[in-house]
Amino acid sequence: MTSPPTNLLRGAPYFPVPDVRAAAEHYERVLGFRCDYAAGEPPQFAIVTRDGLSIMLRRVDDPSKIVPNERQGGTWDVFFWVANVHALDAEFRASGADIVYGPILQPQYQMMELAVRDANGYVLGFGQDWPS
Questions:
Q1: Contact 61/43 with Cβ under 8 angstroms?
Q2: N or C: which end of the chain has fewer CB within 10 A?
Q3: Distance between CA atoms of 42 and 35, rounded to whole angstroms?
């Protein structure tokens, strides 16, 4: 008897936020995601998705407990590999996104990268293998 496959099928970072509705609207308006799911009124939890990749948003009572990786010495809270980082950069700039850096070439690992900060301080990295 064989066991069923144990493939991982999907993943999503989990971001605590003070206002789920405002966070989801920011992801839709500025970063091109869509809200696939929201629970509660006002929303206490939501999932925003772009191109099949999701981010979970969960309301927290105490915003001081929100500590994005950048404030802890890190770079990103989530990283996405993309097909065209320059087109994504143009899209983000046109929608008023908070650009942290890029696009810049990271020669150590051959990646053209861009990073944006969301309304709650989380940094989203986007990279394209370079040269592609």
A1: no
A2: N
A3: 14
Quick one: which H or E segment has residue 33?
A: none
pLDDT of residue 80: 97
Instruction: Name 131's bridge partners.
Output: none
Judge whether 55 and 78 are in contact, CB under 8 Å. yes
For the stretch 64-93, pLDDT in tens is: 989 999 988 889 999 999 999 999 999 999
How far is Cα 124 from Cα 78, in angstroms, rounded to an integer?
Answer: 5
Residue 33 tokens read as 């995601």
Strands 123-129 and 78-81: parallel
Residue pLDDT, tens place only, 12-45: 999 999 999 999 999 999 999 999 999 999 999 9
